[in-house]
Every structure is written in C-alpha cells, then in structure tokens.
C-alpha cells in the first residue's frame, strides 16, 4: 500500500483508502462531480470524481473504505487525487489501523501499565470499582483502548484516551510521592476514571465526532454518573467516598468556565486538575511541533495558549574551557 | 405562645423556642457564658445565658427545641434575651411549623397543583418517570414538600422548593401556550425535576444547610443523575429523550459561570432557564420588599441585582378630566 | 408572480423583484458586469448582468423594484439569475408586501391587541402618554406597525417590532397575575414603550439598516428621551413616575455590557428585562428552526446562545400498557 | 470660629457647626444617647450627646447648622466631641462656605474661564445652545457653580463640578491644538456639557447625595436628554449635529461597563473620554496625596487604581560636576 | 519614478520598487509562477511573474529593491502588475525614503524638539541617563529616529516611534502645567524612555516586524531593563529613583491584561499611561480617516475602539442673525 | 523557653519573644497603653502593656527581640499576655530560628539537592550562569536560603523560597522524563531562577514584607533583569538563549492578569508555569490542612481556590472478602 504522505504529482494510485468526506458539487458548466477527502494514517488528500456516473464508479458513502484507481495531480500548489475507479472494499481487504491516526505507543503495553495503578489502590471499594470498569467490562475496555481523547486539539488518535489517562496517572503517582498529604487511592481512582465519559461523548473511529449525548451532557457529567451507577452496585460502597470520587471527576476542568460544575474543593481534585492540564498542554505542543517538522521558527498564533508558539532552540552541550 | 416579632424590652418570656445557634464564650472577667440565637417563624433574637451552671439551666444543643424562661433586654439598640431557665422540650410540647419560616401558601394545595402538570404529560416514559418521583416515592415526596429552595437568597423556607417548582411550571405553561414550538411534555418534565437535587444538596429543616454531598456535587449534577437512575428502571425509556431531559437539568442555570456544565442547546432548556431565572428574581425582590415593610425608599445595594433596589411608587388611578 | 423559493435551474423568469444589492465588478478578461441580489418575500438569489451596456438593460439602483427577464442557472451548486433585460418598475406594478419578509400574523389584529394593554392602564398620566404615542400620533403608529425589531437576529421582518412588543406585553400580563407585587400600570407602559426608539434606530423597509442616529445614540437612550418629551407635554405628569418609566426603558437590556446605562433597580424593570429576553430567545430559536425545516439534527454554533443548537425530538404520545 | 482640624483634647468649643449625621443609640445600661458627626470645611468629628433630654439640648436634625457648646475628648486614640448644649442656628449666624469642602480656586474666576470656551465656538447652533445653559439659565448656572462632581471619589466639594468641567475643557483645548483633525466646536460643546446631568444626579450641598432621579437614570442619560430638550428649542439646529453632541455625552465614560450605552464612535467622543478620564485620575490622586500630608510612604490599596499608591520621591536638582 | 498610487490599467512601468513579499505558486495547469507584493511609499500592488524562468527575470528575494519592467492589468476590479523583467537594484539606484511609509514631519526637527525635553530635566541622574541614550549613543539614536512605533495599528511608519514619543512628551508637558503635583523630571524621563524597547522589539524597515526577542520579552520588560543597565553605569544613581522610572515604563500600558506586569502606582505612571493612550487613539483615528479620504460615512467596525467609526460632520461657522 | 502554643490561662511567662507589632492606644478613660503582638516559631499572641511608663518597661520597637515578664490572661475566649516588664534582648540571648516560622526540612540538605540540578545542566553558558548565582555569589546564596516565597499565602517561612524552588525543579525533572521534547537545560535553569527576584521583592525576616522596589517592579521583571545582568557578564552567552531564559521567567505566572507581561510561548515556559502552579497549590492546601489539625470538616471559603475546602476522608485499606 502506498501511503498518502508519499504521493507525488503524476503517481498512479491503486489501493484501499478511507473516505473521510463526500459531497456532490456542480461545475460552472453545470456538471455534477464529487468532492472527497481520502485518508490513511499518514494523512489526507483532497480528491475528485469528475464523472460520478461513469461505469467504474460504484456507490459508496463517507466513512467507507474504498478501493480506488486514481492519478495524483496538482492544483494551486496542492496535491489532489483524480479518481477514475472506485469500489467499496470488503472488510478483509484492509486493516483499520492503516487508515487512522494511532498512538505511537503499543496499546496493550499501555493498558497493562494502567492496570498497575488499579492494583495499587488499597481501599477495597475503589479497587472493586476500578475492576468493574477496567478488568471486567469487556465492551468498555475495548472502547476505552481504541478511543481518542478529543475530536481534535490533542490525543485525537486511536489510543489517545488511554495514552492521556496513563500520562495523568503517572503524573499523579509523582504527586503522591512529592506531596504525601494526598490520598493515593482516591487520586488514582479519580485519574483512571476522569475521562471515561469520553467513551460515549465521542463516537468510535473512524468517525470520532461528538455524539448527540456528548453534546447534550458532556463527558464530565457522563463520567460522574457512570461512576455513580457502578458504585451503587458495590455493596457497602461508602457514600462519602462515592461523592469524593465524583467530585474529582466533576471538578477536573478546574474552572466553571471550562465546564466543571464545581471548582475543586479537595486536594485530590486540585491535583487531578493540574495533572490533566499539564498533560493536555504538553501533548498539544508536542503535536504542534511534530507537524511543524524541525522548524524553530515561530509557528503562529495558537488559541489554546493565546500566544504565538515557537520551539526552543537547541544548543550543543560542550563545556567551554572556562567552566573547568 | 408569644412570637419573637412581638417581644418588647422588659417582657418576661416563657415558652418553647428553637435554638438555632449555641456557642460558649468568656467575659473580660473570665466568666463563661453562652451565646445563643433563639428562633420562631416570626424571627430570631440574640440570647445569653450568663450563668450556664446555675440550677435552672439544663443541657441542650443547637437545633433543639428548648423551653425557656427569660427577660427581654436591650443592648446597643437591639433586643436580647437574658435566659434564666432552659430545658429541652419534648416533641409533644411544640409544633415545628411555629418555629420555621414557612410558605404563605398551603403545601398540600400547591402539591396537588404540581401533580396536574405531571398529568398533562402525554409521553408515556416521561409520565412514568414523574410518577416514580412525585406519586410513588413517599420519602422523596415528603422531603420535596418540606424543603427550602435555598439556604438563603430566595425561597429559603419550608415549602420553598415546592413553591418555586410550581411557579416555574406555571411560567412554562404560559410559554407553551405562547410559543407552540415548545415540546410541552419535555418542558413540564424538566420544570418539575429541575431542582430535585436540592432535596439532598440542602439538609432538612431546621438545619437547612449545605450537605457534604451538596457541596461536593451540587444539585445540578445530582438532579441529572437522579433522573438517569429512574429512567434506567423504566423499560424502553428512549435514550435520546433521557439525554434531552438531563440536558435541560444540567443547563438550567444558563451559563457555565453559574455552575451549568452545558449551555442550553434545546429550546426547552432555554425556556426552563428563563422560567427559573424569572421566578428567582421576582421572589427575591418580593422577599426584600416584604422585609422592608412599606418603605418606598432605596433599600441599599443587592449583590444578586448588582444595583441599589427600590420599590416603585404607587399612584391612585383616578382619571383626570382631560382624559375624557 | 413566480416566487424565488420555487426557482429551478433552467427556468425563465419574467416579473418584478426587489434589488437588495448592486455592485459593479470586472471579469478576469477585463469585462465589466453587475453583481446583484434580487429578493422577494420568499428569499433572495444571487444575480448577474453580464452585459450591463446592452440595450435591454436600463439604469436602476439598489432598493429599486425592477422588472426583469432572466434565466435561472446553477454555479457551484447554487442557483443564480442571469438577467437579460431590466427596467425600474412603477409603483403600480408591484405590492411591497410581496417582496419583504413579513410577520405571519395580521398586523391590524396585533395592533388592536396591543391597544388593549394601554386601555388597562389606570394611572391617568401613563394612560395619556400611551395614547399620545399609540392612538394619536399617526406617523409614529404607521412606522411602529411596519418596522422590524432588528436588522437581523430576530423579528427582522415587517411587523416584527409590533409582534415583539405584543409578546413582551403578554408575558408581562402573565407576570402581573403571577406576581401581584408588580405595578401593572408601570409595567404595561414600560413594555409598550421599551423598544419605541427602534422606529428611528433602524430605517424603514426595504432598507432596514441602522440609521446614523441609531448608531450614535442607540434605541435605549432614544426611547427614554422620546418618553421624556411626551411626558413633559402632559400636565402634571409626576416626575417620579416619569423617572421610573424611563428607568425601565434604560435598564431593559439588563446588563451594562448589553448597552443599558443602568442595571434594573425596580422590580418592573427586572420583569421587563426578563420578558424582553425571553421573547427574543424564543423567537430567535423559532426562526432558526423554521429555516432548518424539519431537521432534528444539530444546527451548528449560534453566537447568541454560545452553543450548538438542536431541535428537541418528537415522540408520539401513546400510552404503553405498563402505564395502566 | 475654631476649625475642626485645630481641635485638641481638652478644648472647650463654642460655635456653629454643620450636623452631617444624627442617630439615636442605647448604652449597655439602657440609656439613650445621640451619635452625631459634626463638620466644617476642615474636617469632621464624631460627637455624642450623652443626655439628649437635658435642658440645654434643643431639637435639630441632620444637615442643620447647630450652635453648640462642647468638650473635646479622646476615645481609643480618636478625638470626639462631648456636646453639652445645642441649638439650631439661624441663617444669619453662619456662612455655608465655612462648613463645606470647597474648591481652592475662586468660583467666579473659573466660571469666566469656562465661558471663554463657549465664546470660541463658531458653529452658531452649538454656540446658542451653550448660551442657553451657561449664560441665560440662572437657575442652572447657580446650581452648576456650586455643585460637586461626585458624592465622593474626586471633586466632591463645592465648585467641584465647575473645576472638573473647566479642566476637561482645557485638556480639550490642548488636544485641539495637538490634533487639528478634531472638530473644535463639537469638542468644546461636548466638554462643557458632558457632566451637566450631575446637577440633578446629585442633590445640592450640604446633602450632596444621589437623588432618586440620579439613581434611576444616571447623569449620562440625563445630560443627553437635557441637551436634546434645548436643541429642539433652537430653530434649525441640525439633527446630525445634535446626535453627534449627544453621542459624545452618552459615550464619555468610554466603556459599556462604566455606564456609557455607546462606545465612542467619533474622534471627539474619544477625546472627551480621555480628557474626562485624565482629569478624574489626576484629581483623585491629588486628593489622596493631600489627605496623606507629606508622607512618601505607601498609602494602601486604592480601588479606582486597583493598586497600592505612593507619592514619588523628590530629589534636589543640583547638577553634579560630571554633567558639565 | 512613477508612484504606485498613480498606476492606471494599461500603464507600462519601468523603475525600482521594493519587493515586500514573494512566494512561488502553481497554476491549475501545473505551471510555476511568482506571487509578489511590490511597494513604494504611496502604496502596494499585487504583482505576478508568470514565467519566472524567462531570461529577463533575475533572482531576488523579498525585501530586495528590484528594478522592474511591467504592465498594469486589472483582475476582479483590482490593479495588478504583470512583471516581464526584474533585476535586483544597486544601493545607488534608489532612495529608501521613496519606498517606505514615512512621517509627515521632518525627523531632525522632531528630534531637536525631543531633546529640549531632556534639557528641562533638572535631576542630574535622570538628565545624564537621557543623555546617554538620546545624545551619546549614536547607534541607538539612529535606530530610534527611523523606527516605527508599531507593526501596524498606529505610527507604523519611518519616524513613527519618534513622532509618538514626542507627542507623549508634549502631552506630559501640558499635564505638568495643569497638575503641578506631578514630578516633571520623572515624568519627562519616563515619557522619553517609555517605548525605547521598541527599537529592538521591532526589526528595522523595510521589514518592520516583531523580532524573536520582541515576541519573547516585549518592549515593556526590554525598555525597563535597558534603563536599568544605563542607570547602573551612572555613579550615584539613586536606587529609589531608578525603581520609580522603571515602574513608569513597566506600568505604562495601564492594565495587566494589556501586558503591564504592574498597574500604575505613582501619579507619574498614571499620567504617562494617559498620555500614551491618548496619543495612540488620536493617531489611530487620524490614520483611519486619512485612508478614508473625505468620507463622512460610517467606516466599519474597528477592533481597537470596539465600535463602528465615523468622522464628525463639518459645519460652516456663519453666525445666524438670531445670535446677535 | 516556653513556646506560645503551650501557653495556658494563668501562666506566668519569663523569656525572650519577638515583637511582631507595636502600637499605642488609649482606653476609654484616656489612659495610654500598648497593643503588641509577641511571636515565636509556634505562633503569636496578642499582648498588652497597660502601664507603658512603669519602671520595668524599657523602650523597644516592633521587630525587636524582647525579654519579658508577663501573665497569660483570657479575653473573650482568646489568650492574651499582660506584660509587666520588658527589655530589649541582646543578640546572644536568643536564636532567631526559635522565633520565626521555618521550613520543616533542613536548609543545607535542600540547598545541596538544588545544586544537583545545576550540575545536570550541560549547556555551558546556562551552567555558568547558575554557578554565578548559586555557587559564587555568597550574599545572594545566604539571602536565597533564608527567604520566604511569599508574604503570606504559601511558603511564607524561613527557607520557603528554597523549598518551593526545589519542589519546582523536581516537578520539572519529572516532566523532562515524561515529555522528552522538553529542553532539560533550559527548563532546569528557568526553574532555579524563576523566583530569584523574590530575594529583593520581599524584605528579610523577621519583617518579610514587600519592599519599595518589590511593589514598584515585582519579582517577575526583577528576576528577568537579574538574569540579563549576569548573562551579559558571561562571554559568548547566546542572545537567543538569554531571551528564552528570560521569557520563561517573565511568563511563569501563565496569564497577563497574574502579572506576567507575556503568555508562555515556549514549551519550557508552559512547563515551568505548570510546575510553579502545582507546587503553590499543593503547599497552600498542605498549610491550610496543617493549621486545621485533624479536622475533616469543611474549612470555609478560600480565595485562591474560589471554593470551600475540605480534607478528603481516610479509609482503612482492608480488603473485603469479595475482592479475593
């Protein structure tokens, strides 16, 4: 399979690609054509079917995997696919992992690391709650592993939710060591569960868009309720502990303006907010820098940071003589 | 029983009053005494027990009903009770309704009016949900009827939650008639349920203070989850409808800064927010004016309205001759 | 007359349409042509005159009614008029009501309903003031009836100002019944007058744009001054009452940031603000939903509501068996 | 007459002072006494009448001028008047100017300077408008001359409104010279009229408090309407010019949050806002420094400046040798 | 030399112009061409080199001065240069002043005026500090004279920094006369130095863009540090005075949100903030009006003023008879 | 020495205590007395000298160490010292560490840990810069070690600046491991230097209050300039690197509203902001909880967190049987 990032003007392409977007349009001359975006895990390319009614063009929809024959052309300095033949592919003809942005890290390895946090939780009810979600609920586990943590912004790739959750847990482990006043069991449980609502706030890949429920309720209220439901099924789950855990989830965005209905009132909620915020910012910048290649130039204004952004300069670490 | 509002300097008082507050203190001379606030439904009065160890003073706690003998004195222009004897009263010796601020309206009459809204809901799952709460759940019904709608601010009296909920429902009934685009069933259900979380956010009278759960979670998330729990027990409750109802509850404060994790996205959520806001403001001003008596003077700065407040002037509606 | 909403590609059109916009442009080849927007009450259509100097094209301006011969074409999926002949129409050749967006409700019926509010006002000076504007001032009455309530956003159609004012009055009537503490006379007078400044803030249809005065002063200060002018002509108009009425107008946007120079300090000003806000939001959503047809999909981000918007779902109200 | 600023512990005082405040209170022992604040132009002093029913104490009210006999005592480090005799003074017995804070500058001199600005206005309608207010309207002139520009904050003394208006005019004269693009006539007229609403927003001295009208409407809307009323009486006053002048008044606070219903849209409105702001800030600091004596210490937090404030240090300007 | 503002369609141009921007692009047909912006002091014009490889086209870069032969064409109503020949010009072939926007006022005259402020400063250390920058440091002086005060917004022309600094000094001179409480020496020194950081925050013309240092540190912190460095080299410079001067620079934007790390705490810092703000606003409007020609129409929304903007109307100042 | 925290009513005290505050006052009866606050490292106690002129009372000032004889009394439930004799103590009579709040951790141990971060910096100029401050500058080192990190809020004890800086460095070490994209050398240098301006923003203990320089400039601009001064003394220090380091210091408060003149634009500046924020919040809560003892009750509203605060509950970690 030839990846999108390696397309060059004049190439002839033959293979299966994911159709991310599909919309009919009309030329100035009144001819109907199709605007498409084709995708694999290395990128996307604007594509056209200039003659949708020709024999080689079979019917398909957005989010289908499509076997195409096409030519790479250039329009206003940007590459474009001119698709001549198209046929919906069978499931056996492609592997989804080739077509979707995916975590750099091995998902199973990350998941095992995540479970270690659950195992360090001593409080029996919290421990059981984590097992209900992360050990016993196969459907949840499968969705959690392959979900993104966002539609865009950061961690918007397969495994992104897992990678982000694991990073937050590790930050919390550092906090617990540095600030022993923290309640480790509560913080670990909160870190593992803080974004579980995203499993239903965002649809699965390849769509990865806000669901109706997600838009109406948001992952914060959804996650808190999910925790409540499971806690009610665990005999003797202390009410106070349930409220503390839900508080950490409800407050993890830190500010009412960011969608948390409560400001953090427990030190564990404060810590979770800091860990979530730190990982989101580090990962966002990492993704910005990655897409900017090696450039050390200013990369333009970024809304999240309300600033122009630039990578810091790199200096070779030789010791000058006068440092002896 | 002599009510607090009728106390005059020099009166000798004998009867049962609610002790709202109790704290030991020490005079300059090193003598211990008790600072108390005694209350009935007409008001509160600062009170002292200057000799807590004297024979007539038995042990009691804040929020106890206490049978006292006392004298009304005046200190720096304010009346004060000098308590000489005190004894915890038996349940048969008082009626709670005499000691707590209470709605002007009959609670049972209001409750019947509220149920009429539930009966107008045609959509069967919403209808059943309302019955689960407001018809079948005796514990919930009892708490709902006697709860306040706030610790202070507005409707902070017995029956206040019911009175506010009923007013909001009636405003929504007007909206439904004026704006037929509104989904009546959804709006009525949302109006009835919008503050049910307050039953657990605030403790029962006479305490009427934020609970631990209330401070950690808030009535908005609590109410949404309560609806979710009941909906899951009703067979075939449409998921989309459940999300819409929960959205209305989550969004009913209208702004993220006011603790709603979502801004209203459905017209019914917008309408509920307007009804809630309108009734809260009207009732707050009504209570301010009531406590100001007949004064038409400026009543000072009010934080909710971010303005000085005054009652409008009243003119007699005689028709002058030149209006003929 | 063939309405714009029924145009189909290939149609040949002949009739009078309102020219909303007209601007000369130049093709890549250096030829001059005219960009136009033609309008009737059912919609607008981009139009071109490719040869402005040809014999059949007479001179006309934006906001003229023009008798055209044209062909409906399609460009990039959107319909377009290719105008071959054009001639400014005489007044006898068209009826303005066919060309402008207009209230669904009968203007005279609404106006009579509005006058009923004036008749319920008992305080003689307020009553006389309302008669000065709404009964005696023919020029004002004519303008008020046919004005919009906005350039866009909501009620931006002929009769919109009247329709909005009437809705606000009706909400106030409900408030007066529900909250007897409200001063009915003051509130009705304020509701009727709250937006009278818009008669001069916005120009008449078909232009319906901000006037110079409107941009410099705004309808809030303008309306308050208009009330002052009339009140000064009514013998014995109580100064305090004049100030209260003007305050309601000045404060009706509710917040300084929304252009009110004073926050509401009277309960009637608070009520007017709630009524204005409620009707504006309901009507805005009604118009959004209307233009979205029957779609129950998410309708994208709306700036007024700071949220994505969606119509709530409709369920058939059959009673399931288990509700017996 | 002995001024308040020269009172020393032990002094016996006999003379007329203004009673700024009067309120009955009760001692711990149940005795009634009077809390007063007595004032002259040099300051105020807390005062007590310990025996209001004694023979020498006649009846008087707050804001009366009172002839007293009293002793200066000290309580918790602060001086206090112990009043033994008190009698309402006759008008002939005092001169108001001795009792009220008053501008350092001669009011008549300032007023003549102000009129020079009116004389430089060439545009005949603006010129006539200024004459209507500042030359012909005796009642207005008298009030304008003796009014303060604020209840507190800055220029809260007799002549303060005049002094502030004159300073603003002078700043505008500088602007007109420095930025010839400014329309001198419009700017001078706007500067002279910008705060005329304060004549009725604040009551006369000695009360100097917000009036009912002032609280309901504010000096911004009031001043704009006052200008409108006069302009309508001047034949041929250009509408556009009236709107521009009113705009400058409406916009002179510069921001909606500061009570201007419109942001400045004309350069003259921007200039007026800067002049008003500059003079207000300079005068406020001047008054703070004056009341702080020669202290060059930090003077604590000031809300207007949202900062701690300190006077800058003074250095003797000797030229060191190395500057030759 | 033919200036850009006088170009007409069909003109043939031959001369040296500054290339402000240069970027390669590809036509639909896959041919490479160059998009350029050419500039002189009267304006800019979009330009194309359709055949970059033709013999007459030599290599050059953005910000080079280029000797071109070209034809003026029109595309979509806008003029465009079609460049046929191009050659990098030698320094002797052009004068930079012809190609850059430049102050209307003579730079040397303005600089001498500025130095007069330094000469009025009596405090010897401040005086010496100003001499270090504005009299002795040739490199600084040269840069200061030819710098702009901004990338865009206002004073974004050669000499703009000097012109703005001089205007601010003059405003401060007026303030010192009007408010004698101001410390003249400190205020003049602060006014002269307030924007010196811009010499390094923005690169020299023709680039005139934010430098790396400028983006990272900003002219406020940079200017404060520059003052600190010089002050440390002047023997006996009083520490307190150094801190006061740096405070004025740090606080001159007036609000933390505008990038000042401290709010003004000294009256001189307040005055400097007002002077800077006043000149920036007046100059911005002057430039807006200048580019709008004689139009007295509304000029659209301006972000700095958060309002639509219009020039005020001009009336002929004839005295009507009734003013006699 | 008897510590303040162990004082009981009736105790007779004899020893050296630090006088934190001293102010003369006058009793109702006109007698002068002294209000004092005496302090040791375990707390403070209100104190009185009722007869300042008695023989045993020698002269002393606030911030003196004073040898006193006194009696512990109780007033309104609070302990108070009644001082009978007082004499300024000689330096040999006390050890400052007994009287000031001091870090729980050993200062020299912490300092050695801090130096390890400097040793891991490879880039030679940054390394040399850190050595200039933290290894070679004895005065700086001494001040840095014994400074607080704040006047109040958090780390307001001897060694607080060091303890906070070390915690921030350790968080940064964790970040560098977790997010390898971070430039370790730049981040460590920035972390070590981020609060060095506090050495001069706050005065030394026992005063520990804002200095004049601190109020005028703030530790952010001061720290950046301190780094600039040293960097300029190191031959070949790369300009770009200096700007990056200063940027990290200038931006470390994260928001303009919090006094940073620039928002973080480099990932190291973002990381430093998160580390500073995290440690400040954790330490603040730690100190709140410490002063609240073992209470798990709600501890009231905290301005920093804009929320009521409570410690989370502690559960014993026994494994229930059903977890096997």
Give structural attributes.
two-stranded antiparallel sheet, alpha+beta, 324 residues, 7 strands, elongated, homohexamer, 9 helices, disordered C terminus
Structure in words:
Six copies of one chain form a homohexamer. By secondary structure, the first copy, chain A, is α+β, with helices and mostly antiparallel strands. In chain A, about 40% of the residues lie in helices and about 20% in strands. Chain A has nine helices and seven strands. In chain A, the strands form two sheets. A five-stranded mixed β-barrel of chain A has the order 1-2-3-5-4. Chain A has a two-stranded antiparallel ribbon with strand order 6-7. In chain A, strand 2 and strand 3 form a beta hairpin. The first copy, chain A, is elongated. Residues about 315-324 of chain A have low confidence and may be disordered. The interface between A and E is small, with 9 and 8 residues.
């Amino acid at each position: 399979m030839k990846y999108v990032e390696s397309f060059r003007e004049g190439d002839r392409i033959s293979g299966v690609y994911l159709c991310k977007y599909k919309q009919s349009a009309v030329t100035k001359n009144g001819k109907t054509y199709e605007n498409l975006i084709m995708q694999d895990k290395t990128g996307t390319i604007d594509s056209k079917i200039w003659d949708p009614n020709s024999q080689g063009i079979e019917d398909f929809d957005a989010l289908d995997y499509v076997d195409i024959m096409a030519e790479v052309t250039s329009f206003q300095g940007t590459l474009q696919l001119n698709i001549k033949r198209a046929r919906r592919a069978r499931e056996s003809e492609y592997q989804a992992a080739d077509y979707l942005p995916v975590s750099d890290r091995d998902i199973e390895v990350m998941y095992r690391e995540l479970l270690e946090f659950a195992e360090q939780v001593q409080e029996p009810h919290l421990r059981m709650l984590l097992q209900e979600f992360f050990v016993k609920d196969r459907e949840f586990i499968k969705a959690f592993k392959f979900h993104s943590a966002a539609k865009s912004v950061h961690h918007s790739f397969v495994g992104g939710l897992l990678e982000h959750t694991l990073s937050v847990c590790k930050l919390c482990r550092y906090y617990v060591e540095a600030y022993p006043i923290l309640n480790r069991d509560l913080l670990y449980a909160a870190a593992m569960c803080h974004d579980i609502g995203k499993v239903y706030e965002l649809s699965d890949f390849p769509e990865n868009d806000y669901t109706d429920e997600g838009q109406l309720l948001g992952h914060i209220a959804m996650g808190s309720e999910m925790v409540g439901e499971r806690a009610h099924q665990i005999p003797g789950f202390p009410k106070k502990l349930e409220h503390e855990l839900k508080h950490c989830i409800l407050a993890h965005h830190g500010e009412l303006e960011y969608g948390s209905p409560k400001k953090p009132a427990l030190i564990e909620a404060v810590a979770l907010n800091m860990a979530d915020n730190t990982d989101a910012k580090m990962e966002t910048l990492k993704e910005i820098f990655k897409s900017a290649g090696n450039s050390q130039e200013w990369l333009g204004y970024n809304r999240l940071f309300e600033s122009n952004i630039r990578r810091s300069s790199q200096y070779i670490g030789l010791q000058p003589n006068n440092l002896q």
